[in-house]
Amino acid sequence: MRLLVTSIHDTASLTIRDVFINDYSFEDTGETFDGNPILSNGFTKLVTSSKEMVDTNHLDNHFQAEAYIFCSRHKAESGKPALLVHSTGNLGPEALFGGDPYSLSISTASLVSVALKTLYREREERNLVNFDITMEATHHGPTSLDTPLLFVELGSNEEYWTHQEGARAVASAAMACHDSPFKSECYIGIGGTHYVSKFNKLVLEKDILFGHIAPKYSLSTIPESVLEQMVNRCVEKVKKVVIDWKGTNQEQKQHVLPNFEKMGLEVIRAKTL
User: Fold this and answer.
1) E strands along 50-206, which residues?
2) How far apart are the first and last CA of the chain?
3) Three-class SS of residue 54?
4) What confidence score (pLDDT) does residue 255 get?
5) Are 146 and 169 in contact (CB under 8 A)?
6) pLDDT digits (tens, 9 = 90+) for 57-67
């Protein structure tokens, strides 16, 4: 079972939850989680937490799931409408938005890829022409769950957290993740910006799967232990490391790349793929 997760503190997730109820026939099961009804469509369950989603490290205490699919808001100062997907974790010493410092969740590159492709298709079909669509680099909690997870998000401010067609696009991506198998291999990404344009292109055009992604701003101080988690905290076997060569400086390359070589992983430039 793959579990859909929402939160009472998240306006976008509640909008998306309503889509599941109205468009996908989710109904009350009579069970509760965090004091909120658990819903089901007969194939999967939808739970609503009374905590912020970045703080839901208690999910494993209640459920045995193959994956958690979080349906969440995204907040950005630009306020630009957006549909996003990413793995979670804190690459450095700060854990301002849930989880623990220097700690990564278990990523699932297979489902991140499915979600990204579905969001692109939904944008076309729903005429969401003003919406940006992207993967994001690994960030925020939860980080200590033993179940693989991903976040699919609707952004980027209060106006769009209640956008019905945007919510339907996220719900569609979440349901696609529920139905898609895990593949056997993936890559991890190094460098570039938080909104990982080069890696997006590789997913969409080359069908390359990305688990954790560490952007340029995290690389100067990222420790070996976190680089190891990028490789080991993933459902799929990490095959190679893809680096945005121009999206990293020389000091960062010297800091990061020897660690991957020590792990026996080939590092390849994004532009060669």
Assistant:
1) 67-75, 82-86, 89-90, 103-104, 132-135, 149-156, 185-190
2) 34
3) helix
4) 96
5) no
6) 999 999 999 99
3-state class (DSSP) for residue 217:
helix
Within 8 A by CB and 6+ apart from 209, the residues are 109, 110, 112, 113, 183, 185, 186, 187, 203, 236
Q: Where are the domains of the chain?
A: 2-272
Q: How far apart are CA 11 and CA 8, in angstroms?
A: 7
Dmax of the chain from CA atoms?
Answer: 57
Residue in 104, 94, 57 with CA at minimum distance from that of residue 228: 104
- Residue segments in the chain with a per-residue pLDDT below the cut of 50: none
User: CA geometry: angle at 182 spanning 62 and 218, to 5°?
Assistant: 80
Torsion of the alpha carbons at 213, 260, 97 and 119, rounded to the nearest 10: 10
Fold of 2-272: Aminopeptidase (3.40.630)
Q: What is the pLDDT of residue 203?
A: 98
Q: With CA atoms as reference, report the closest residue to 184 among 242, 239, 255.
A: 239
pLDDT on residue 142: 98
Which amino acid is located at 254 in the chain? Answer: Q
Question: Encoding tokens for residue 43?
Answer: 């194939």
No. of helices (H) and no. of strands (E), the chain: 8, 14
Q: Write out pLDDT tens, residues 20-45.
A: 999 999 999 999 999 999 999 999 99
